[in-house]
Design a protein that fits this description.
Blueprint: H1 3-11, H2 16-32, H3 37-45, E1 47-50, E2 55-58, H4 59-85, H5 91-116, H6 133-141, H7 149-174, H8 180-198, H9 205-221, H10 227-233, H11 247-271, H12 280-284, H13 287-313, H14 325-334, H15 339-349, H16 354-393
Antiparallel strand pairs: 1-2
Length: about 400
C-alpha cells in the first residue's frame, strides 16, 4: 500500500482526530512547563487585527471565539441533520439530550455549592456545570464502531445544550454588561438567514456572509460568540427524504477535515497550557477541589442519568437506538470533561484572584482526565463485550 493510501485512511479514521487532539494536549502541557512556557503565552497574548472595527484581539481570543465558532457550526450542522431526518427526528429522542443536559448542569452545581457555601469560593458554583464539547466528542470518536452512532449524536446534542446553558449562565451571572444594540443586530442577522432559507437560497455564500456579521455582532454583544456557529448551522437548507445532497451536507463534508485536523489541534494547544505550581496538589483536597472534581465526575453522571431515567420512566423521552443504560453511564462520564468552558467560567468567577484561578484550572484538568479515562474505558469495555457476543451468535 502506498504512503498516500495510509495517509488517506488516517485522515478518514474516526479515531485519528482524537489521537491528534490528545497529543496536542500533552504537547501544550509540556511547553507550558518548560523554558518555552513564557514565550508561548506571549504568543497567545499577541494582539492581531485592527482597531477600526474593534477587532484587535489576542491570538487566544481569535482561537476560542473565532475558530471555535467554525467547530460549533459543524456540530450544529450534524445536530440539525439528525433532527430533520435522523436520530433526533422524534420528540422522544430529541427531548432526552435536553433533559439530560439540564440534569448534568443542576446536580454538579448543587454538589459544588454544598461544599463551598458561605466561603470565598461560592461564586464558582457554575464551574462544574460545563461539558467541553470538543474533547468529549474527540474521546468518543476514538471508540469507532464500539460506540453506537446514536450515542455519539446524543452526547453531541447534550453537549450543545450544555454549552448553550453555560453561555446563558455566563450572560446572566458573569457578564458585566450586555450590549443590547449588538444583540438586536444579531437577531436581525438570524432573521435574514431564516428568510434566505425560506426563499430557498442554496449557495453557501448567501449564508456565510450574514454568518460573519452574526459572529461580529454576537461577539460585541457580550454573549459568547461561538453561539453564532450553532445559529448559522440551523439556517442552512437541508433535504428531507431525498437522495440529492443538500447544502447542509455539502458544507458538513467541507468542514470535517479542517475542523478535525486543524482547528481542534490548535484549540487544544492554546487551551491546555497549564503551568503546574507548588501547592496545586494540596488544593485538590480542599472543599474547593472536592466541589470541582466531584461536581464534574459524579455530578455529571448522576444528573444526566437520573434526569434521563425519570423522563424515560414517565415515557416522555426514550433511550437512543441500540444504547444501553451502561453506555449512558459512559456518556455521563465523558460529559464530565469540563475543561475549556469550565476554565473560562473559573476565570470569570475569580477575577483578580490568580491563585484561585490556578487552583480551579488544575482541579478541572484532574477531573476532566478522570472523567475522560473512565468514560472511554467503560464504553470500550462494553463495546468489546458486544462484539464478542455478536461473533458468538454468528
Amino acid at each position: 500500500m502506498l504512503i498516500t493510501d495510509y495517509f488517506k485512511r488516517f485522515l478518514h479514521s474516526s479515531q485519528s482526530s482524537g489521537i491528534i487532539l490528545i497529543l496536542c494536549v500533552l504537547l501544550s502541557l509540556l511547553i507550558a512547563n518548560s523554558s518555552l512556557g513564557v514565550s508561548f503565552q506571549t504568543l497567545l497574548d499577541t494582539k492581531i487585527g485592527t482597531d477600526i472595527f474593534q477587532l484587535n484581539y489576542p491570538l487566544s481570543i481569535w482561537i476560542n471565539d473565532g475558530l471555535m465558532a467554525i467547530f460549533f457550526l459543524l456540530v450544529g450542522l450534524e445536530i440539525k441533520r439528525e433532527i430533520v431526518e435522523g436520530e433526533l427526528s422524534t420528540f422522544k429522542s430529541a427531548s432526552l439530550p435536553i433533559v439530560a443536559a439540564i440534569g448534568g448542569m443542576v446536580v454538579p452545581a448543587l454538589i459544588y455549592y454544598a461544599f463551598n457555601y458561605g466561603t470565598e469560593y461560592a461564586n464558582g458554583w457554575a464551574i462544574p456545570m460545563a461539558t467541553d464539547i470538543a474533547f468529549s466528542l474527540a474521546i468518543i470518536s476514538m471508540l469507532g464502531k464500539r460506540a453506537p452512532l446514536s450515542l455519539k449524536i446524543f452526547l453531541a446534542a447534550l453537549a450543545i445544550v450544555d454549552d448553550l446553558g453555560a453561555i446563558m449562565v455566563i450572560a446572566i451571572f458573569y457578564t458585566d454588561q450586555l450590549h443590547w444594540i449588538y444583540l438586536g443586530l444579531s437577531g436581525l442577522m438570524v432573521v435574514i438567514l431564516i428568510l434566505l432559507n425560506v426563499f430557498n437560497f442554496k449557495k453557501h455564500i448567501f449564508y456565510v456572509v450574514p454568518g460573519l456579521f452574526l459572529w461580529y455582532f454576537m461577539h460585541h454583544s457580550g454573549i459568547h460568540a461561538t453561539i453564532a456557529g450553532v445559529l448559522l448551522a440551523f439556517t442552512i437548507p437541508t433535504n428531507i427524504s431525498t437522495t440529492e445532497i443538500s447544502p447542509l451536507e455539502k458544507m458538513e463534508q467541507k468542514l470535517h477535515l479542517p475542523v478535525n485536523f486543524l482547528i481542534m489541534p490548535i484549540f487544544a494547544l492554546a487551551n491546555t497550557n497549564i503551568t503546574f505550581k507548588d501547592g496545586m496538589v494540596d488544593g485538590l483536597f480542599t472543599n474547593f477541589g472536592y466541589g470541582v472534581i466531584l461536581g464534574l465526575v459524579l455530578g455529571k453522571i448522576i444528573g444526566i442519568n437520573l434526569f434521563s431515567w425519570i423522563f424515560i420512566k414517565l415515557k416522555i423521552s426514550g433511550l437512543p437506538d441500540q444504547v444501553s443504560w451502561s453506555q449512558m453511564l459512559g456518556a455521563g462520564l465523558l460529559a464530565g470533561i469540563g475543561f475549556t468552558m469550565s476554565i473560562f467560567i473559573g476565570l470569570l468567577s475569580f477575577k483578580g484572584h490568580p491563585e484561585i484561578q490556578d487552583e480551579a484550572k488544575f482541579a478541572i484538568l484532574v477531573a476532566s482526565i478522570i472523567s475522560g479515562f473512565a468514560g472511554y474505558s467503560l464504553l470500550r469495555y462494553i463495546g468489546k463485550k458486544r462484539e464478542i457476543i455478536a461473533e458468538q451468535k454468528d
